[in-house]
Each structure stands twice: as structure tokens, then as C-alpha cells.
Amino acid sequence: MNRLKPAFLVRFSVEHPWTIILVAVLISTLAIFPITQLKIEPDVESLLPRDSSENEESEDLEYSADFDRLAVLVEGKDLFTLEGLDRFSDLVSRLKEELEAEKVIDPFSMITLEQAGSRIRAITMSAGGRAPKTPEDLAAFIRRLDNDPFSRGLVSSRDGKALTAYLLIPKGRPYLEQDKVIRSITETFKDSMKITVTGSIPFSAETERYLTRDALRLMALVAATILFSYYLGFRSRRAMILPVVLVITGTAWSLGFMGLMGWKLSMVSIVSPPLVLTLGSSYSIHILNEYYQFPMTGINKQKRIIEAVTSVSGTIVMASITTITGLLCLLLASMPQTRQFAVSTSVGVAATALLSLSLFPAFLSLQKPVAEIKTQRVNSDILSRGLKKIAPALVRQRLPALFILIVLFTVFAILSPGIDYNTNPVSYFPDKSDVIGELKSFSREVGGMDEITIRLTAPGAQPNYFLQTEVLDKIYGAGVKIAENPDISHLMSLPAYLSFASETALGRKADFSNRGLNLLVSRMFLAASKTESDFSSINLTVRIYNSFEGRPIDEGDTKRISADLERILQENLPEGVSWEMDGLSLDFLELSSIMRRDFLVSTLAALFAIGIICTLAFKSLKRGLLALIPLITGIAATFIFMSIFHIPLDMTTIMMSCVAIGVGVDDAIHFLLRQRSEELSDPENPENAAVKALIHTGRPIILTTLSIVLGLAWFTLAGFRPIRYFGLLIVFTLTAAGLSTILLLPPLARSRKKTL
Asked: What CATH superfamily is the domain 1-36+235-375?
């Protein structure tokens, strides 16, 4: 462990403080420009595991990697008048122009079928694909809208009393700017109609507002907490101000690194800056606790600072290594944003550790010597006195400690399988959010925007297979059964469109016997969708929502609906027809599976890596395993807590275990290092060595845990639920790990044999 002590760096910093300060200022100045280039990435779809080729080929309104979607629902008692429809058309046109939309679907330009004498023709709902201009055009528009079976739940509400338009908008323009434009335009029309706007633009803009507000608020609250906790622990201005300067500098370096790499602050990495602030502050406590152990004079001030910092430098280096190791195990995760969080936070932790061993002693060397009264105050406060009283009795409680561990792990084994994973972005916002209110309103009126596309492929990819009468009949029947599900608000397919054509031309639904009609309408269908096909494959597209509660679907709804679709397809499709399902909701379901895998792999990797590091550092397998006890205890207790209070793991909270493992082991290392040192000093009395180690390290362990927990506790006030849960779970885990280090580790680590 002595090889981990950077004695030269500490000595140089104390003897040449202004050199160290100038270097720190220079690096911080260089970090300013990349920090100003940092942007927030609020687009939740950027987290999805999609192939780039698939993204580029997707052109529908439900999902495209290069486009945002906007849905506009308009209601009003005068909507279905010439003036009302003209205002609706004007609203859509202005949105299209200002947002530079590439594609628009509205009730006027939607293609429908109409009989003209003995022929059938494809025609727009309204003449010319624009708002009706005459009473005759208005009557024809309303008639076509009512007769078309595909208009409800798409361009009109399910009750037919409201109209909807959809815009596909190229990505790249700032979401807050676009949202401001949307709100400005819709505000001018609200005097005569009720307008509901939803889609990825308002959703991402609201996400950015929450992330920005939470990040700034949390950093300010964490900094204030550090000031308060350090003053409470040491009652000194230097002990209060210097650590804050140090962690702010380290956080600035971390943010500068992110900007230099061209990364963005996502809903995953947004917790990195306040986390670096909190974690970095713990290193200063170890130094200050040693710094205030003995009074100093002007003559021995530099020597005393060097001794104090060097004596705990091994602990700081080891603690930073384990914290960084735990974080870097997140590199095994699939999401790039999680890996970026791991690297940027590791840079911040490394920076604060380096600064604590260089900039901090440099600052201390410029301060006045510590007065004797302050060292007495630190060494005789309530924590120090309490530890001296309970330590001798505590280290003898081995059997109670073992009993607690057995009970804890038994309960963990029973309850942990019930923990849920949540990838539904809608649930991340407070219920009072206007964006969520508008999304729910749209779902109630129209039936939601979530789509699942079912791609059917003919046996052997046989051309024109899906124009055969028997095949069309079976697929239409499967579609009818699918539509019976109340959570299916809209279904579009070639057989359904051909059924509409036969009803229009022949007066009979689902009559697929007229091959000429089938060929004609199928060409119209392809022309309307602007695609080409040899009919060796076709798509069935369904819109889904939770009809019982009138809200967008969540992960449970997606599982239930997709399972029902699988069953119907299995039972009703022609033999040999294969299928695959795709959609944004299914991608989030896949993300849930990926999160499970990432959480398990990264957690086990972190435990294994930390165990190896501790074993090598202590040159003892026993001590390496002992160091893991507080970690495993903290994680097990947290899983029990999550199961009891139904707290799910999400895109942010899956990082909790690796962060907790890397941080939670620090206190155990500090205790075990001191215990080994005491055993070597007094090999005849190993029990007394454990008592002395607990008395000496208990105070900084409690203070560091308290400092980190108080700092992270502010996360629970975040408006964004993943950040709130992340803070809550980290606080609970580190509290449990800290208690385990104080109460369980000393009796379990106490040696019964004399130390050689």
C-alpha cells in the first residue's frame, strides 16, 4: 500500500503551492470553452438500440431516427364549418411552414375511395387536398370522412367530433426553440378552438427543461451541503471553503472533458456533475481529519501538512481506484450514454482525487497553523467520544453480525426477483406536467400515437402471394380478430383496404373474388403510401393505447398486446407465412431486456473487479472478501427496499449498483488499512487493534458517508423521476454500506490470532 502513496506530489505541492495553483487555474481556464459547447440531449429515442440502417430506411410517422413527430388535435363546436375548417387548415399550414415539416397527414389530403358510375376512384377527402371552399365541398368532405373506415383514430377522433393532423419534421433544430414556435402559433388559434399538441418535440422540450432545472438546482444544493457538512464536522472556514473549491474545480474538468469529446448531457449522464461534486468531497474529509489530529506551529507546519496528507494518501488513491473501477464496469453496458457517464464521471473522480493530493495541500500550506483548541475540538467531539465508548463492545459481536447477514440475504433472495424495470418515458415526468396531460388527452380522444407494424412474408418470398383470394381472406380474418382488442384504436392493412374497396364498388365487405378490382386497388394502395412491392410481403399497422384508463401504453401494456398479437397471428395466418413485429414501444421493451442484462453483468463485474483489487492491495484473500461485505449488504438492503416500495430500475437507476460498489468500498478499505496497521504495531493484541482502528477511522467514515448521503439526498427533490430514484437508491445503499462498515465489519474482521 505504501507504493500507492504519492509522497513526492504531496511534498512538491506543499513546498511550491503557487505553482500547483497556477497549473490548476490554467487547466480550469482551458476547460471553460468546451464547457460552453456542452448541450443537453433530451431525445429519449436516442437511447434506443436501433441499427443505423434501419433508422435510415424508416419513413413512417410512427418512428424515424432523422425526424420528429408532431400531432395536432383540434376540437370546437364550429370546427366542421367552412370557417372552422379553414382555420384548422391555416393552423396546420403555419406549423408546416415554421417547422419546415417534410411530410404532413391531415384530413383534407388523406386518400379515400369513391364510386364514380361503374368505376371506383381514389380521391382526397376534400377537393384539391385542401380545406373545403363551398358548401358542396363541405358536405362531400364530411360524407367521405364518415364513410372512410380508416379516418377514425387517425385523422379524426374516435367519436368523429375532432380532427387531427400529423407533421414529420427533420431533426436538428433545438427542441426548446421549436416548442416555443409551436406554442406561439397555437396560442393565436385558441380563441375559437381547443388545441392539443403532442409528439416528440413537446416531449423532448419538456425533458430538456426538467433536466436543465434539475442539474443546476442539484449542483447548487450539493455545494451548499458540502459547505454545511464540513463546517459542522470541523468548525473552520478553511475546512468549509477549500473542499468546495476543490470539487468545483474537479467537476469543471469533468465537464470540460465531456465537451472536448463532443458528448451531450443525456437523461443518463445528467447526474454526473452533481455526483462528482458529492463523491469528490469525501477525499477532503480524510485529509482534514488527519490534519486536525495534532496542533502545529509555524516551524513544523509544512512538515505536519505533508505527514497528514501522506498518511491518508494511500487511502485516497485506493478509494479513487475502486470508485473508478466500479464506474468503468458500466462500459459493459449497451447504451452509449451509460458508457459516456462512466468515463466522464471517472475523469471527475480522478481529477478530484488528484486535486486533493496536490491543490488541497497547496492551499493548506498557505493557511495559518492550526490552533490547539481546534484540534482538541475535533478530537473530543460527540463522534469521537461515542466511538471510544462503543468500539470495545462492538468488535466482540461476531455472532450477532453473522445473524444479521444471514437474515438480510435470505430476505433478499425472496424479494429481489420481484423488482421491475421501467423504460416508459411517460412515467418519468410528474403527473402534473402539461406535456403528459396533453398526451393523455390525445390518447383518450384519438387512441394514442404508438404503433406496431407487423410485416408478413410469403413462403419462399413468392411474388403476388398476398393478392391470392384465399390468402387475403385469412389475413383479413386475422385483422378482424386483432381489431376486437379494445386497446387497438386503428388498423391499416392491404386486405382491410381491399375490403373497403369491395364494399364501395360491390356493396359487399371482404369480397376478394374480383381479381381485377384487387389489382387496381392494390396499385392505388401502393401509390398512396408511395412504396413499391411485388406483394411477396405486406404490412399490418396497428395503433395501440390503454383503453381502460385512456392513456398511452406502458411496458406491461406492450407485453400484453404483443402477446395477444402473437397468438392471433399464430392461429389465423396461412401456413408458411412468417412475420416480425416492429415499433417504438417494442424497442423500449427490448431496451428493458438490455437493461436487465447490463445491470446484472456490470454489477457482477464491479464486485469481481473490486474484490480482485482489494485482495491484491491487502495481499490477502480474506481481507479482499471482507471489503465486499458492506457493498453486498448495502445492495441487498436496497433491493429489499425497492421490492417493498415498488421502485423500478430505469435508464438512470441501473447505474446505481456500480456507483455504490465503487464508492461504498472506500470506507471498508479505510478501516481495513488502519486495522492492519494497528495489528502490525501491536501484534500481541489483535482485538485491541480492531478497537483502535474503529475509533480512528469511525469518525471520517461517518463524516464521509454523511457528506455523500446529504449531498445525494437532494437528488430526491428532482422533478425527473429517474434522477429522483437514482438519488434515493444511492443514498439508501451507501447508508446501509456505511452502517455495515461501522457495525458489522469490525467484529467480522477481528482476528483471533496474533499477527506475525
From this structure: Multidrug efflux transporter AcrB transmembrane domain (1.20.1640.10)
